[in-house]
Design a protein that fits this description.
The protein has 254 residues and is α/β, with parallel strands linked by helices. The chain is 22% helix and 35% strand. The longest helix is centred in the first third of the chain and has 32 residues.
C-alpha cells in the first residue's frame, strides 16, 4: 500500500509540474505574439532616437546635437539610419533585438559610408553665416534676395580655398560673412555639401567686425535704420540694406 501511495504522489507531482510548465510556456508565447512588427519597429526607433548621442561612435562637433533624419528597416533585426547634428551627417547600420517584454538591445552600431547623392541640384555663390544649427549660406536669385540654406557637411564634402588644395572641412577655417561658392544636393531648406570653396579673401566680409559698412568709401549697403524693421538678415551686395543690431540701430532692434 505504501508503495502504491508513493507512486500516486509521484504521478501527481509530475502532472502538476507539467501543468505549470505548460502555463508558463503559453503565457510567454502570448506575450511575444502580442508585439506586432510595427510595434517592435516603433520601440527600436524610440530607443535609438533617445540614445543616438551615446550610440554613435563619432561624436557631435561644434556644440551640435545628433538627431535622426531617416530610418530604413532592412529586416526584422537590422535598420539603416541617417543622422546629423547640423554640422556633420552620418549613416549607420544597426543590429538589434527586441525581447518578448519589449526591451530593446542594440547588438551592433556601425558607421557605413554615406550614400552619395546622385544629383547635384544646387550651385550658388553667397556669404556664409553662423547660426544655432550650424552654418547657413545667404544667397540671391532674381527677384528673391537674402535666401537662406542650411549647410550640412559629411565625409564626402570637399572644402577648398581659392587657389589651394582640398582640405578638411572641420575645424572650420572660414568666418561670418566670408564669400563662398557651394555646390550640393538641396532638400527643403538644407543643402548636403559636395563642394565648398572659399573665394578670394578680397571678397570676404566679416559681419562680426566693427566695420562701418554704411560709411565706407564704397557704399556696400543702404542705411534704412529708422524704418521700424530690424534688418537682422540681409543680402550682401550693392543696394542691399545694412545689417542692424541693438547697438547699430536701437530704434528698430530694441
Amino acid at each position: 500500500m505504501k508503495k502504491i501511495g508513493f507512486i500516486i504522489i509521484l504521478i501527481a507531482i509530475i502532472i502538476v509540474g507539467f501543468l505549470i510548465w505548460r502555463t508558463e510556456t503559453q503565457n510567454g508565447s502570448e506575450t511575444e505574439l502580442g508585439l506586432t512588427l510595427e510595434e517592435k519597429q516603433e520601440l527600436v526607433k524610440t530607443h535609438i532616437q533617445e540614445n543616438i548621442s551615446n550610440l554613435s561612435p563619432e561624436k557631435e562637433v561644434l556644440g551640435g546635437t545628433f538627431y535622426i533624419t531617416e530610418f530604413e528597416f532592412m529586416d526584422s533585426e537590422t535598420c539603416l539610419i541617417n543622422y546629423e547634428d547640423g554640422h556633420i551627417a552620418l549613416q549607420a547600420k544597426v543590429n538589434f533585438n527586441v525581447s518578448a517584454q519589449g526591451d530593446v538591445e542594440i547588438v551592433s552600431f556601425d558607421l557605413v559610408p554615406l550614400e552619395e547623392e546622385t544629383r547635384v541640384n544646387f550651385s550658388k555663390e553667397g556669404n556664409i553665416l553662423e547660426v544655432d544649427q550650424g552654418w547657413e549660406l545667404i544667397y540671391e536669385e532674381p527677384g528673391a534676395p537674402a535666401l537662406r540654406a542650411l549647410l550640412v557637411f559629411d565625409d564626402n564634402s570637399i572644402c577648398t580655398k581659392e587657389g589651394e588644395e582640398d582640405q578638411a572641412c572641420f575645424p572650420v577655417y572660414w568666418q561670418n560673412g566670408d564669400r563662398v561658392m557651394v555646390e550640393g544636393a538641396k532638400t527643403g531648406e538644407r543643402v548636403r555639401v559636395v563642394d565648398f570653396r572659399l573665394i578670394d579673401p578680397s571678397a570676404e566680409i566679416d559681419l562680426g567686425s566693427d566695420l562701418d559698412l554704411k560709411n565706407s568709401e564704397t557704399e556696400i549697403c543702404v542705411d534704412v535704420c529708422g524704418d521700424g524693421v530690424c534688418q537682422e538678415m540681409v543680402c550682401l551686395g550693392s543696394g542691399c540694406p545694412c545689417a542692424e543690431t541693438v547697438a547699430t540701430c536701437p530704434q528698430d532692434c530694441s
